[in-house]
Input
Amino acid sequence: MANMLSEDKGVAIVDAMKMLYSSEVYSKLEGESTKAWNFGPAALYEEFQIKRS
Output
């Protein structure tokens, strides 16, 4: 996901990772009850993009 974000937004990979780690989507990944890790990176990235707009 960080690579996708880095390429789409033209930001450094470290900055992309910071953006992801501070996002609502990452919070879902941390929560065991959400089971968000079952989704692939493309689906999670799409959700990340939707939440940011």
The chain has four helices and no strands. The chain has a mean pLDDT of 93. Residues 29 and 36 are 5 Å apart (CA to CA). Residues 2-52 form one domain.
